[in-house]
Each structure stands twice: as structure tokens, then as C-alpha cells.
Prior knowledge:
- 16% of the residues lie in helices and 31% in strands.
- By secondary structure, the protein is of the alpha+beta class.
- Strands 7-6-9-4-1-12-11 form a seven-stranded antiparallel β-sheet, with no helix packed on it. A seven-stranded mixed beta barrel has the order 13-20-17-18-15-14-21.
Amino acid sequence: xxxxxxxxxxxxxxxxxxxxxxxxxxxxxxxxxxxxxxxxxxxxxxxxxxxxxxxxxxxxxxxxxxxxxxxxxxxxxxxxxxxxxxxxxxxxxxxxxxxxxxxxxxxxxxxxxxxxxxxxxxxxxxxxxxxxxxxxxxxxxxxxxxxxxxxxxxxxxxxxxxxxxxxxxxxxxxxxxxxxxxxxxxxxxxxxxxxxxxxxxxxxxxxxxxxxxxxxxxxxxxxxxxxxxxxxxxxxxxxxxxxxxxxxxxxxxxxxxxxxxxxxxxxxxxxxxxxxxxxxxxxxxxxxxxxxxxxxxxxxxxxxxxxxxxxxxxxxxxxxxxxx
Length: 324
């Protein structure tokens, strides 16, 4: 019989919630897919512990969190760059970490990147709704009654019978979260080029507007959230025409009347009426999600075929062994 431990969230930081890979396949009912903003980091956190890739974990925005554990276990932390300590002793990011009964884990405020993921061996023991524990506060769905976590809340986990070996993610799979430095060279700039598949409305843009869109640096607006990133840059002009609302997916790039694009994120609405310029590659969406307000990037025009190859390569990371 397995024993259970508890995590007490001593400090919840700016925003902390329980997330997994979401609840796809329900948009025809008006239900958002939701799930982790950065699937890359969540997948690796769970992979380090041999968890299912959709095991519920903590998603911490800008970190600055503190957790207390009552039973021995293993955790893994991946994502935003921050200082990690267990009982005030430094521990590495993108790694599995041994936790003893009574240990206190602290994450400092993030230096780069927006989201940190704290996975626990076997996953958090939480109630799922519609097949997922992913919290969506707008819809009131997910663990913790669909709400963000607050100071003092307790979460359960199964204390493993045997503890695993220490493991870390190979450096070649680590994500770079810094935004474009306009004084840097072209190679460095390509770290934050976000590729997208063009939609029908893209081809209706005048060539001058296409060039403006691709040649500009875009900034993440302060009014962005987990529904969508509001982008700030030059005004992109398109012809005004009546159109029906159409289904949306994470990564869809809408163009409102003000000419400032919106990139849909995991908690996006199911349909939208703005012109659709295209959709961000699924393999690039994680990097886009990790950009904080004020940070910048540029767009790169791609294709469906290139996006499929990029996604296959992205998925192949988890078919390879992690370094011990």
C-alpha cells in the first residue's frame, strides 16, 4: 500500500496553477483545450521522472515560490531560468531532484522565461474534469475548482517505494528564452524567430504589408494572458470585408481592426471573427509562450510541410534517453 505525502504551498508567487496537456477535442462544445503554456518544459519535467507526459504538475509564472514536502519523493523542475534551492542548498534546473521528508523547495524570481514547471514522481493526486486537471480560470475547469493556487494550499502525492537516479536534460534540448537583441548578429536573432503557416488572409495582404509583418520586431503587450498574446509593432493593414467566425487553434494569428496581431495561446476561445493571418508552428509555440511582456521576436514565413517536419523532430526529443 502506497503512502501519501503533502506539498504545502508556502508562497505561490505571481500566479501558480496545476496544468497538464489539457483537454483537446472539446472545442465543438465551446471548451478551451487549456493545458501547459510550454509543453516542451512540462514534457521534460515529467520525462525526467518517468511520468506520463500529461501527469499534472505545477505551472509557476515568474517563479518566486516556496513549497514544503512531508514525505520523500523525486521532483523535476524545467522551464524559466531561476535559482533553485532545497533547504537553502543550490539545485540545478532542468533536472530531477531528490526530496526528503520535511524539505523546503524555493524558486527565485525568473531571470528569463516566464513559466517554470514542477513535476513530482507519479504526478500530483488531483481531481480531473473532462479528462484533465488543467486549470482554466475563465471556464472554472480543472483541479482546485478551476482556480489558481494560493498561499497555504496543500496538494497530495504518492510517496514512491523506490527513489530514482538523478537525471538531467541534455544541453542540446534546453530552450533559449531571451528575446531578440537588436544589436546582435543574425545567428543570435534567429533564436527568437517564430515560424508560422500562412492562412488564406495572408495571401490577401498587399506585398508591402507582408514585408512589414515579416521584417518587423514584435513586442509582447502588457495586456497579454493565457488566452492570447497581444503583439505590439507596426500597424498591419488589410481590406475590411464581412466574414464568418471560424474555429481557432493555439498559435492562430488574428488581425484585429487596429492592425496589432493577437497570437492565440492555450486558453483561447473556440471561434473568432478577426482575419486569420496564419498559425504558429506547434514546435515554436512553447518559445513564444515563454516571452514575457516587453520582450520581442520576429516572424518567419513557413509551410505546412516544414511545420510537420519541425514537429516530428520536436517530438523525437522524448524518444531519446536523457543523460544520467
